[in-house]
Structures are given as structure tokens and as C-alpha cells.
Amino acid sequence: MFSLLIFIVIVFVCCGQNNLVAETIFNNVPNEVITLEGHSGEITSAVFSSDNKKIVTSSWDKTARIWDAATGKELHKLEGHTSWVNSAVFSPDNKKIVTASWDKTARIWDVATGKELQKLKGHTMCVNSATFSPNGKTILTVSLDNTARTWDVATGKELHKLSGYSDSIDSARFFPNGKIMVIISRDKEAWNKTIWQWDSSKGTGLRKLEEFTEPALKRSFSPDGVFFVTVNLDNTAQIHDTETREELQKLEGHTDAVQSATFSPDGQKIVTSSWDKTARIWNWQKIQQRLLHEEQAKNKETKKVDNQ
Q: What pTM did the predictor assign?
């Protein structure tokens, strides 16, 4: 990505008189936005596969859907849940997807066929989210029943029940080594959340890490950590410089609240999900080129004024 940006800078600096050449290079980059349309209910999440080729979305229309990340074409509709679907993520090898639903279950799906493989039953209330371990052999679910549970992917068998929380658990993650789980619970004060650390092999609690407020959960960083994207109440997402916190670009187009915004693993795209029943793929690579183009034009105009 950065090599392409450097090339464009060279075109502008060294061949400034040939604006047509620079403009042609700029305009030949793929469009900035692809809209994913098909869901009949609000979209609750959208994430890329680790190879950047696919996106999975979850929705209140009781389905999850798999999309081609390059074209926006719908590939499969994952049907089986009997209530809203809260989240959907790919397994590390991109061969499976796990969904979490208000129907008190999580389900495992085959990416190639869109067929249901396993139904994970045990929670007594809505399952808020589900995620795979780094080796893809275990799934971690969290629920409004104030528990988290781990499951064997191959058999669908419950392995451990993690309890002891005073209120609902919103989300959970594995450490990269897969040995420790981080669970985020919502305390009695609506916006106050706590991070807890658990041993994934034994299902035993280790320690309470920290407390923070809701906005801390709304950031997604680019793979290199240089940028982060947030969602806002004005139906937009914003891209920021991590070091300066400066807002670089507002992603406008959704007509209702944006629920999530996530970078692709290669850092070249961002996918957003919204209550307007669409997800959108934003070409961050092209947006950066446009911003560079605008900055070069602005500097050129400023230099022209200074020389008068």
C-alpha cells in the first residue's frame, strides 16, 4: 500500500506538469465503497476472513451471510437460528463460521457450503457473542445468563462453564497463545465494564484486569497500529491517526446507526455494519490516495498564491 502511495507522490512531485497522468493513475483505483445489500433486518456485525477474501455479516433477520469481499456478491445465507443473530466470525483457517443468537444457541457453519455443522446448546438466555480459539479447536461463548462457556468444535460438546458474574457478559477473546481468555462483563452501572482473565484449559478464573467505559470497546485498529476506526451516533465511522488522534476521514453513507467498523487483515479495507440493513466495504487504500491527491492540490494552490 505504502509503495503505491510513494509512487503517486513521485508522479506529483516529479511530473507535476502532467496532471493528466496523475489523474489517470488516481482514477484507475477501484471504487471507494461497495454496499452489501440483502439482509431484511438490522445488521449487527461484519468481519473479514483472515485471507481478506470474504466477509460474514450477522443480522436481526435471523440469518448470517457470507459475501465476496472483492465484488460484494452474496455467496451463502446461513439459515437456522430462530431469533436475532448477534455476531458471526470466521475460524482461523476460514473453513468455518460461528454465530451467536438470541435463540440461546451458537452454531457452527461450513463456509464452502453454508450448511450448519453443530448447534451449541446450554445457555439459558441470549448468546451475545462467540469466537474461535487461535487453533480453531475451541469456541468461547458469552451470554445474558451471566456465564461464558467453552465448546469443542468437532463435537459441539460443552467443555467448561465460567460463572460468577453479577451481570451480563458482552464479549470475550482468546489471547494469541490460546491459553488465556479475556472476558468483558457489564457491571450494574450501564456503561461500566470489567475485563476478566481466565485459564482456557482449566476453565478457572485468574484475575480481574481493569474497568473502563463503553467507548473503549468501539475502536478497531489497523494491523500495523497506525490507524484506528470508531463508530459514532451520527450514522458514520471515523478513521483516526493513532499517534495524533486526528480524524483523517469520516465514512459517510449509512442512513442509520453504525454498529461496527473493522479493518481487513491486510489493512487495505474497512467493513462497517449498520441498522440501515446494509454493510459497506470502504477502500481505505483509495481513500488515502484521494486524501494525498487533495493535499497535493492544496499545496500546489498555496504555492501559486505565495508566488503571486
A: 0.80
